[in-house]
UniProtKB/TrEMBL annotation:
Coiled coil: none annotated. Residues 37-341 form the Amidohydrolase-related domain. Pfam families: Amidohydro_2 (PF04909). Belongs to the metallo-dependent hydrolases superfamily. This is Amidohydrolase family protein. Transmembrane segments: none annotated. It comes from the Bacteria. InterPro entries: Amidohydro-rel, Metal_Hydrolase, Metallo-dep_Lactonases.
Length: 341
């Protein structure tokens, strides 16, 4: 299965508009700062391909990106394998790609794969991922994203109802911790209480919250950003009390967040991103602390809205108010410690 199976409403090629992205160009801020990008994908959407060559162009566009973490997106599945082993094809293919990255380029240092954490044969699936990953498997993402109006979303989640409360699922998340693997998640802002209950139920497993919990800004949530921010702010403060949760700072420029940057004549500048989104970032850092925060690109998904160099310029502008040590944590060390790379 290609990435297109993951994002049925994705407009193929929207993530590859090079001329549109290049219409906003900025001088690179703090170009020597070491960066670990803990969240990107690789995929094929028909003729629209985001694989190593385009990734290298992004990570090599001026910022000092030295390592990355690949996150599952249902690419490269082995359709000839038994159902529980089909996702192992993704791990195998990405590990093969990672082995070809030349020295001096950003290395794919870790892979977060998919496995159905509810299955009785989960151990067999994890063993197969370990072998296929060639030392790069660092975690599993079995996302819980689910909304009652999926037709309003460009990237509708496919999580099952009640997933986070499912006893079998919680046993699977606990198994990840016992194996030294992380659990990555993606869900929507209105699922925050369910995720909080999960985090409290599996304290021995490191849970990685992707994309701020995806505050939606389309469909029934259009025009309600201030209201959502107030509720989200309290939800994140509560969640930060779970010491096993680490937060990724990024993925807030997806079309479903409702900024509508993807439909403009020009993408935003780093200053505009800071002005629009800065309060969300600073609240997360205040709640979780830099030791549990890591900036992420979420490329090529956020690539529909903003270019890689401009995105990381915005991160650096937002991070400027924090100490050099805290900046190092958020740009590289939190990711390395969380994923043990």
């Amino acid at each position: 299965m290609s990435g297109a199976g993951r994002y049925p409403r994705w407009r193929p090629g929207i993530e590859l508009r090079e001329d549109w992205l290049a219409s906003v160009s900025e001088e690179i801020i703090d170009p020597d700062r070491e960066i670990v990008d803990p969240h990107h994908h690789l995929w094929r959407h028909g003729d629209a391909v985001y694989e190593l060559d385009v990734l290298a162009k992004d990570t090599g566009s001026g910022h000092n990106v030295v390592q990355t973490i690949y996150i599952e997106c249902r690419s490269y599945y082995d359709q000839d394998a038994p159902e529980h082993l089909k996702p192992v094809g993704e791990t195998r293919r990405v590990a093969e790609m990672a082995a070809t990255v030349p020295s001096g380029s950003a290395q794919i240092a870790g892979i977060v794969a998919f496995a159905d954490l509810r299955r009785a044969d989960l151990g067999e699936t994890l063993d197969a991922h370990e072998e296929a990953g060639q030392g790069r498997l660092v975690g599993i993402r079995h996302a819980g994203a689910r909304d009652s109006d999926p037709d309003a979303l460009m990237i509708p989640g496919r999580g099952d109802a009640g997933l986070y409360a499912d006893p079998a699922f919680r046993r699977g998340v606990a198994m990840l911790g016992a194996r030294g693997l992380t659990y990555d998640t993606w869900h929507y802002h209105h699922q925050a209480e369910d995720f909080l209950a999960l985090a409290r139920a599996v304290p021995e497993t490191t849970l990685v919250l992707d994309h701020f919990g995806t505050p939606l800004g389309v469909g029934r949530f259009k025009g309600r950003r201030d209201e959502i921010f107030r509720t989200w702010r309290d939800d994140m403060a509560s969640l930060s009390g779970c010491s096993n949760v680490v937060a990724k700072l990024g993925g807030l420029s997806m079309p479903d967040n409702g900024w509508n940057w993807d439909s403009r004549d020009r993408p935003p500048s780093s200053d505009e991103m800071v002005e629009c989104q800065g309060d969300w970032y600073h609240h997360m850092i205040e709640c979780f602390g830099p030791a549990r925060c890591m900036f992420e690109s979420n490329f090529p998904v956020d690539r529909v809205s903003i270019s890689y160099p401009v995105l990381w310029n915005a991160f650096k502008k937002m991070a400027a108010r924090y100490s050099p040590e805290d900046q190092t944590r958020m740009f590289s060390e939190t990711a390395r410690q969380t994923y043990r790379i």
